[in-house]
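Q: My labmate handed me this sequence with no annotations at all. I'd like to see what the chain might look like in three dimensions before we decide whether it's worth expressing. Could you predict it?
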Amino acid sequence: MLDPTIGYLIDFCGAALLAGAAGHKWRRLGDFSESFAAYRLMPAAWAHGLARVIPILESAICVALILPWAHRGGALAAATLLSIYAVAIALNLARGRRELDCGCAGPGRRRPIGAWMVWRNLLFAALLAMAASPWSSRPLTAADLLTITAGLTVIALLDVSIEQLAAEIAPRGLAIRGRA
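A: Here is what I predict for the chain of 180 residues:
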């Protein structure tokens, strides 16, 4: 059985991840639709239609993750969605399409796909699948709430740092590879 402190931490981190992802897509749905269609996983007309559904799905899963009675389904849905994202990126990397925009960097920001994104999404999917397992029924204490809050803060700061590094380093890596 999973300790509820760990379960809540994973669920809330998953909710924050999906809220941010959905927010980026809602702000520039047309740009996301183009990025999504560029993956070439289905006919373009289907891709543009599905691109409009994805932020709805991400938003719904985000809400499910924070509702105690829906968190298990939300965690499984999030794990499935992140696994699908990992497969889509891996397929395009296998095709040699490393310059493809991931569609995850937000409005006006382009980030090429990379193997690290596959592993990141699979790690998040595994954690969320773990959060879907049964939790211990012990009540939360003040120390648990502090642990969840501190954990969310640290993970948010790490996420911002990693995103900034990816925005700065990934384009330079592509430029260096292009010169070699």
